[in-house]
Amino acid sequence: xxxxxxxxxxxxxxxxxxxxxxxxxxxxxxxxxxxxxxxxxxxxxxxxxxxxxxxxxxxxxxxxxxxxxxxxxxxxxxxxxxxxxxxxxxxxxxxxxxxxxxxxxxxxxxxxxxxxxxxxxxxxxxxxxxxxxxxxxxxxxxxxxxxxxxxxxxxxxxxxxxxxxxxxxxxxxxxxxxxxx
Length: 181
What we know:
Structural class: alpha/beta
CATH class of the largest domain: Alpha Beta
Radius of gyration: 23 Å
Number of strands: 9
Helix content: 25-40%
Oligomer: single chain
Order of helices and strands: HEEEEHEHEEEEH
């Protein structure tokens, strides 16, 4: 019986050491390759997303700033406002919901109120219409050419699919947070 217990303890110790060794090596290798610094901001790869800690706030991105720096975003709009409208066409086929949630997080962490708004009255739910002449806004629509255009006080984001929309919204977020110019 003593020999059996000794053998069992030996197997348990070997298994524990194997797990500890595997976890230790895995964390050491991923630790060194999963951190980047860009423009003075530190990013950590966490669950296949890039985590940016800015003060006490945390933001998760799918793309690093280096992956999005080739997307041109030149705007004269100042997003340091008390309220920003997030405009959409109610008949749009492109899913803008996740992009709006992400932008709301960015703005609310800076103390800026966001309000969804329709571009047209037809089929619009119970939200206001966006008036770009008088209100600061970000509009998301689908289109063939990915990019940004400026209309009075609104920045229009045009994307041909969800993945391009995600890149454009994250590029805008990096600008708002000061990571990219």
